[in-house]
Amino acid sequence: MHFKLISFLLFVMFTVITCSLIEKNHGLLQVKFRLIVFRPFVGEVIAAKLKESNAEGLRLSLGFFNDIYVPPPLMPSPSRSEPDPENKNQVRWIWQFEGQDEYPIDGVDEIRFQVHSVSYPSVPLEQEKDSKPFAPMVIKGSLDADGLGPISWWI
User: Fold this and answer.
1) Domains of the chain, with CATH numbers?
2) Radius of gyration in angstroms for the set of CA atoms belonging to the chain, rounded to a whole number
3) Tens digit of pLDDT for each residue in 23-74?
4) How far, in Å, CA of 1 to CA of 133, rounded?
């Protein structure tokens, strides 16, 4: 027999928890929840919102998942970054189409990206106090194809 490991993320969001009956040593709870199973595949096109933009590229969010990264080599070619006048800790990425027209990635529109790779990092034994939270799944996305990037680019 051959087994294939299938990895995915499971999100549970409790919406209502009510206690119906409590007796000695046991109780009855009524729970309503939403369950999201998320398993993107390489090549899939997904729409997300801009969460962060810096010299290392873009960080995108689906609302329930925030570990989507678009590094500079996977941005539309040619692209460049410049300081963001509205947020001095971030940069704004700009696609220069055919050397003339400039299209900024400003976070106003949804951004279509193509899944380039999906990784499942191993759980760290220890985590530094000021480090970012552990991400059980990391998606690397690409904007370097027709129809990808902010939706306003293609309307």
Assistant:
1) 44-153 (2.40.50.140)
2) 20
3) 777 777 777 877 777 889 999 999 999 999 999 999 999 988 899 999 999 9
4) 37
Q: What angle do CA 12, 14, 16 make, to 5 degrees?
A: 160
The DSSP string of 72-125 is GGGSSSSEEEEE-TT-TTSEEEEEEETTTEEEEE-SSS-EEEEEEEEE-PPPPS
Does the pLDDT at position 8 exceed 60?
Answer: no
* pLDDT score at 123: 77
Burial 51-83 (b: 16+ CB within 10 A, else e): ebbeeebbbbebeebebbbbeeebbbeebebee
Assess contact for 92 and 106: CB atoms under 8 A.
Answer: yes
76-88: per-residue pLDDT in tens?
989 999 988 877 7
Write down the pTM of the prediction. Answer: 0.77
